[in-house]
Fold these 2 entries.
Entry 1:
Amino acid sequence: MGTTLQTIFQEYKGILAADERPSSMDKRLESRGIEPSAEMRSRYRHMLFSTPNLERTISGVILSEDTFADHSIEGVPTRDYLKHMGIAVGVKVDEGLEPYNGSDVLSITTGLETLDKKCAQYAKEGAAFTKWRAVIPVTGVEDAFLAAMASNMATYAQTVLKHNLVPIVEPEVLLKGTNTIDEVAAALERTLEAVVHALRDINCNPHQCILKTSFAATGLDNEPLSADTVAERTLAVFKKIGLDSDKGFYGIVFLSGGLSSETAISYIQRIRAIAEQRGTEFSFGPPLTFSYGRALQDPALTAWDGKDENAYTAQIAFTQTLQHAIKKYKGTEDIPLAGNGKRGVA
Ligand code: 13P
């Protein structure tokens, strides 16, 4: 387990989230006019995972259960293909969401009943880590919901650790609508506090887990803020609840949550850079990196466009995105990245 944590948090590397369920992946294909089917999902992932030198920037890949079980590349199961490159393989083990107490807006993660059995199997088949996702709206959230969500997540982590797999806990605070950074930061703080509290409550050490979190940023329909502002605010939230020391999580990774590739990358570049400025207000102990899905894959998926003859171009786009994501931005001004017209840095 210690080895998995060290493998994942190698300097200049991050995690690729490629754990979209078949229905979500089909929607992404369809939105680009690509025929949604098992065949196309498989071809796309084949292109992605066989990108030359992937292991230079990617230390871990999260797969969906169906990809982990069935998908192969040139006759080799994908999980073995990635492992042979020195990449840690993870599986998203939750079974999705169901309404919380009949609510229209709040939901709770399902899958605890089958988790123990699944983990035994996945550990035997070479998985190194797992992921479990909860979703938390920014407003209208009662303490009782947060406690239930966090307890569900802590039970997941405890079960996974029994099988010597590393748990990624992902309480995703949704960056939707016009929420302000103050509202998102407050929701993030409450959410993370609840998760840490629930883990400690059952004697599950956060230091054996990885936190996957949203940024303290504005909602997707609000004015975008600079990478400096988001980075400082996010680190301030973590520090406030003691996640900057080794009493917190072993390491922290970020989801992109619908931010454009450029914006999500500018945020992680800046976070990594300012967190490493020792002796400053924002200096941070545990390692921090990305675990993006859309922000890493979007440029490659667009370039691929469902055609095998575009695989090489798509792999170049993917490599460029990855190289961009592992850089740190050490300046004080905003990062000069081209935005998509909606979520560029201010
Ligand atoms: P995005 O980076 O596309 O938000 O996906 C990350 C993820 O794993 C969401 O559960």
Entry 2:
Amino acid sequence: ERKAALAASSGPGATSDGHKVPLLANVGGPADVPAAVEAGAEGVGLFRTEFLFLDDSKKAPSEEKQIESYRKVLEAFPEGRVVVRVLDAGADKPLDFLTPADEPNPALGVRGLRSLLDHPDVLRTQLTALAKAAEGLPVYLEVMAPMVADRTDAKAFADACREAGLRAKFGAMVEIPSAALRARAILQEVEFLSLGTNDLAQYAFAADRQVGAVSRLQDPWQPALLDLIAMSAEAARAEGKSCGVCGEAASDPLLACVLTGLGVTSLSMGAASIPYVRATLAKYTLAQCERAAAAARAADSAEEARVAAQAVLSGE
Ligand code: PEP
Ligand code: MG
């Protein structure tokens, strides 16, 4: 039965009553593109460009090398959306030429956008390479920054994009609770939000995502995490802008329905999850997703939230 459901699953992501939720792929580079196309991804919701930089931690890849890699991904989705995240180095992904060597708490130190603002040359080269890679292609390019903490960060990133002559939408990832709390202010500077639920959970619960002993707190069904997601999605709706999810949360089919009910406007995940999420979302109406989301938020633990959402969707 599951096989049949998956075989029947194709086309754009939507609820059973036709509320569209684009299903996008997370990719690390051109090598991940065939699987994304095969799964019927409607574009890329998170291009993790740091993989290109991890080959050589001594220096950034040349502009030419970057253009080549970006262009291969952009070309694969003509008319589609491609959301590129600028380099997210530091913490679990240190780079010698960017990351300070002796930080006591690297996850709370100079990482993500912070290291790029400290090395404007690296950011400028990446943005210029992206502008050149997109030249002449019909693709709908969006560029976002990781680890945006506040409006000042969002403005600094948008200014850098404008200065590089990038013709694209600029966005901010919501990975730090302060960004969710002040999402409307951030949206005065950028055109879209994308929730990085892995880091958002890490920072909301003070639970290192690399430490298995605290994995209970990293569960994306945690009601407090759902509250932060709802807050961001509501802010985007109020500003008439979009708010996607590109963290692991989007790849859980049941949670994908809850995220849709919370007002999230697109879901990006590893390509292998797309058919499952598409098939599950197609079974429920938007109103059912909204009721499941409300039930999950009313719970007191991740486990209760999951059970409550499941109960609503199976009509118990
Ligand atoms: C996240 O933090 O949820 C995210 C999508 O970014 P990464 O997993 O690459 O840190
Ligand atoms: Mg992250």
